[in-house]
Amino acid sequence: MELLESIHQKIISELDTRGKVSQFLLANATIRPTSSIYKNSQSPSLKSRAFRPSRPIKIFYIVFAASIWAAIFYAIRVQKDINQGGLAIVMIASLIITINVLWQFFYDNTLNFSIQIDPLGITVDDQFLEWEKIRETSILNIPGRGRGLNYLIIILENDEYLSFELTNFYTLRGIVKSLSKYIEYFKAHAA
């Protein structure tokens, strides 16, 4: 258990060195094994479970960005005396929002991947990990606005680990509980 705790601390320190998260938020980060998040592995018989980035959230943000641009062009067309400075600021802010939405939901491969869980193991995009090679699965939570940042951490038998940011994944129960449920179910029913 002490070895796993040291690996968890290493993960947090590596996130700190990448500059992705502030020192204050990392101080409150927690890593919990999926077995402690979802203890009951009773579930209907399933052959596999796939998780993909949430389409409704993608659509919402795309419609939001498009409606901002539509409102800007409508204001330009309808209003005769428009404040040029204010319009320029709104257009620049809208451009930043649009670029961020497009990047996050379509071009950033670290956020757009699929997770397939079955009795043989876990597949993240094209990378297959057998249950025998997985020592532990954990969820790293870094508190912040809203849900904070969540990462799926897969610790392998050779003490290497893989981390996957779950920012674009949403489920009704919450991605952390859903992922934990199916990981523990399939881990218990491994082939």
The major pleated sheet works out as:
4 strands, antiparallel
Shape: elongated
Distance between the termini: 26 Å
- β-strand percent reads 15-25%
Characterize the quaternary organization of these chains: single chain
Q: Which whole number gives the mean pLDDT? A: 80
What string gives the helices and strands in order? HHEHEHHEEEEEEH
Q: Round the Cα radius of gyration to an integer and report it.
A: 21 Å
Q: Structural class, from helix and strand content?
A: alpha+beta
The total count of strands amounts to 8
Task: Tell me the layout of helices and strands.
Blueprint: H1 2-17, H2 23-27, E1 30-33, H3 34-37, E2 49-51, H4 55-78, H5 84-107, E3 115-118, E4 121-124, E5 127-130, E6 134-142, E7 149-156, E8 161-165, H6 175-188
Antiparallel strand pairs: 1-6, 2-3, 3-4, 4-5, 6-7, 7-8
Helix pairs in contact: 4-5
